[in-house]
Amino acid sequence: MNQPYPSALLENAVNEFSKLPGIGRKTALRLVLHLLRQDDQHVGSFAEALLTLKKEVKYCSSCHNISDSEICNICSDTSRNSSVVCVVENIKDVMAIENTVQFKGQYHVLGGIISPIDGIGPSDIEITSLIERVKNKDVKEVIMALSATMEGDTTNFYIYRKLAPLNVKVSIIARGVSVGNEIEYTDEVTLGRSILNRTPFDESYKLS
Amino acid sequence: MNQPYPSALLENAVNEFSKLPGIGRKTALRLVLHLLRQDDQHVGSFAEALLTLKKEVKYCSSCHNISDSEICNICSDTSRNSSVVCVVENIKDVMAIENTVQFKGQYHVLGGIISPIDGIGPSDIEITSLIERVKNKDVKEVIMALSATMEGDTTNFYIYRKLAPLNVKVSIIARGVSVGNEIEYTDEVTLGRSILNRTPFDESYKLS
After folding, report:
1. What is the per-residue pLDDT for A95?
2. Do the chains contact at A6 and B34, CB–CB below 8 Å?
3. What is the overall mean pLDDT for chain B?
4. Among A45, B91, B117, B169, whose CB has the most other CB atoms within 10 angstroms?
């Protein structure tokens, strides 16, 4: 029912934008028309930023986080504890945990999660490099910080079994009632877990 | 409070994306990481589409719609009635009206609307070219199809006064109760206008 676009160039740009996740054709058109109203330099720097990123981006050879150098800022920061490694699915999780300012160890970015439905097996993500890292570096604790989903659980168990023969402590982030959430509206699995994993309480207890 | 991005290239790309309207930094990061997962060719064609559009896009010399050629498809379509010109704010309005399949005349894209608050005056939009077009071409009717806002009204009146001395009929699209909307919830200005502008009714009346 939709009439063709008045310009093939416009349609092409809209097509490219609407390939992005969560961007429909209407939003794509709005974004393209916005760019079209900007000056040449603006659009040039937009395109250039993407091309440069794609061409020159590196992944840290130790933790596989996105990095501008061979070793990322976090891995090369000597004030951080290299004997504690937090395993996460992707770079967004690294940024989320860094924002808590609660963790001073290093990370290992899997770059995905075991998901048979999506055809992602253990060899598609950075598990072997994690095992090698634990074997060869002085890693004392591996903290699993994956999503509380079936895929996260599968990945947790797979990695746990690979790490079990090695002399390393494996822990998992706490599941419990979210700070600010009401007990009444917390799902029963989370609530049950929060009772099992209760922590000591005294006058010094603070939520954050 | 936010920690820096792990890569300056990544941050740069996120900055560029978050300049787009309605795209926050979280969405920008999601889009950039999505592109990063695609192959080089995909990202290349994305950037290329934008650069080519910006560099090569033309505006129809008659109606100022976006076009791949000197004269756009609509203006060069001889089956359309060139004596009726519909005045719209932008290309999205052209597409919306084309989608109704109710209009077989031509358009004139103002490329904006008179808005003193935004510093947009009559000389910033394609009003002079509209007057010239009416003067020099055989235009019998100009249909004003601008938004029903104060800026739209201002622009309507400004153009009307410019056209008044010329031998051309000026009309305006009907304001009334939206098809599908309930009378009860229609604002009173629209409802009042719909009563004043009532149309003849008989057995052949159809909404669409």
Report:
1. 86
2. no
3. 85
4. B91
Amino acid present at A49:
A
Q: Which of A5-9, A177-181, B136-140, B168-172 has the lowest mean pLDDT?
A: A177-181
Alpha helices by DSSP H, A18-168 = 25-37, 40-56, 91-100, 127-136, 150-163
Task: Check: pTM over 0.90? Answer yes or no.
Answer: no
Q: Which residues of B touch A29 (CB under 8 A)?
A: 92, 95
Beta bridge partners of A122: none
Q: Six-digit token pair at B126?
A: 């394609």
Pairing, β A141-144 against β A81-88: parallel
Residue the block writes with tokens 């900007």: A38
- Give the residue ranges of chain A where pLDDT is below 50: 1
Tokens matching residue A86:
């937090």
Q: What is the largest CA-CA distance in chain B?
A: 69
Sign of CA dihedral A81, A86, A87, A91: negative
Q: For an interface test with B, give the residue of A16, A19, A26, A62 to mutate (most B CBs within 10 A).
A: A16
Residues in chain A closer than 8 A to B46 (CB atoms): 16-17, 19, 50
